[in-house]
Amino acid sequence: MKFKKQIYGMKAYQPGKPIEEVQKEFGLKEVVKLASNENPFGCSPKVKDFIVNNGMNFAIYPDGYAQELRTAVSQHLGVDESQLLFGNGSDDIIAIITRALLYPGVNTVMADPSFSQYSHNAEVEGAEVRKVPLKDGKHDLEKMLEAIDENTSIVWVCNPNNPTGTIVSDEELSSFIEKVPSDVLIVLDEAYFEYITDPAYKDTLHYVEEYPNVLIMRTFSKAYGLAAFRIGYAIGQSKLIATLDPVRAPFNNTVLSQKVAIVALEDQPFIQETVEQTEKGKQQYVEFCNKHGLKYYPSQTNFILFEVKADSDVIFQEMMKRGFIIRSGNALGTPGFIRVSIGTEEQNRKFLSLLEEVLKEQGVLA
Ligand SMILES: *Cc1c(COP(=O)(O)O)cnc(C)c1O
């Protein structure tokens, strides 16, 4: 058959291992997944009430324009309704953007390592991927600027960056945006926006007002705890959104997910509590790293990437045997490191005590 030739040899996204699989494989009663940056506190309890009590007609197609959710998000952010594009997770938004702008002969610039879906989707479209190594775990915006040429269509800024958790400061970002040619789309992926506490990050919504080529992506998958429902969105100028919108699948958010996102958005105290608890949990990891002299990246997210001074695949395996699923740095482009999603206080405590045991076994710690 006549597939795009770049499809051959590509692999499907490798997600964190599912809990059930690990339970079966190792005969474990309890398995905790700290691999995909999901919210360990679940989601707003109001969502569960809603799901039990809703009286929806599931035979009817969803509203493709997501009007009710659009109104809620536009009011929450203080932007016009026409400035929003909803996706089946931000993954879908990434696919829409790449499908709209990338094809053989053009290129796209991104940090390395960063979120894998930028390059994955670009490869599907047959575009050239230009990866610019991180500097001290942070985007090297100078080098990214240098990588941009007349054939560049999209530049991605993952802020905070996955897998390092680091942010680009507002100062750095503003001079970068100013210098990027106006015909290059700048995507600011802010999947972890709610978790940011560093004042060096300043709200980026005003860039959308000032620059027709800036698009922000946010999601309900992380702090809102709704990863299962697949709702992400983009914010840009109305004209940009209208240009991207025809690429979107007609009913890309389900009826239930649209409703649930509205309910979750209304419960901001839940988000505040999540962020507070996550900050405290992160401190447990920072203390562990400091105590044992393990390098870590300052994280503005609900995960932390830190050094294990051993083969990270081995640490990943050993922790899995003990009932914790994490991400090996080998899978993320950061060998010798592991990425751990911040869990509940108890999960973190248990994880770190088992990790200490494993690191001793491996001869890393005395
Ligand atoms: C988790 C994540 C996403 C994907 O989020 P969904 O809305 O669940 O598709 C996008 N970008 C980054 C950086 C992420 O970590």
Automatic annotation (TrEMBL):
* N6-(pyridoxal phosphate)lysine modifications at: 222
A single GO molecular-function term is: pyridoxal phosphate binding
Amino-acid biosynthesis as UniProt keyword = yes
State the protein's name: Histidinol-phosphate aminotransferase
Question: Which Pfam family would be a valid example here?
Answer: Aminotran_1_2
User: Which keywords describe this protein according to UniProt?
Assistant: Amino-acid biosynthesis, Aminotransferase, Histidine biosynthesis, Pyridoxal phosphate, Transferase
InterPro entries according to UniProt = Aminotrans_II_pyridoxalP_BS (IPR001917), Aminotransferase_I/II_large (IPR004839), HisP_aminotrans (IPR005861), HistidinolP_aminotransfase (IPR050106), PyrdxlP-dep_Trfase (IPR015424), PyrdxlP-dep_Trfase_major (IPR015421), PyrdxlP-dep_Trfase_small (IPR015422)
Q: Which organism is it from?
A: Ureibacillus thermosphaericus
Q: In which pathway does it act?
A: Amino-acid biosynthesis; L-histidine biosynthesis; L-histidine from 5-phospho-alpha-D-ribose 1-diphosphate: step 7/9
> Which segments constitute the Aminotransferase class I/classII large domain?
30-353
**Family of this protein:** Belongs to the class-II pyridoxal-phosphate-dependent aminotransferase family. Histidinol-phosphate aminotransferase subfamily.
Its lineage opens with: Bacteria, Bacillati, Bacillota, Bacilli, Bacillales
Q: Does the keyword Transferase apply?
A: yes
Reactions catalysed? L-histidinol phosphate + 2-oxoglutarate = 3-(imidazol-4-yl)-2-oxopropyl phosphate + L-glutamate
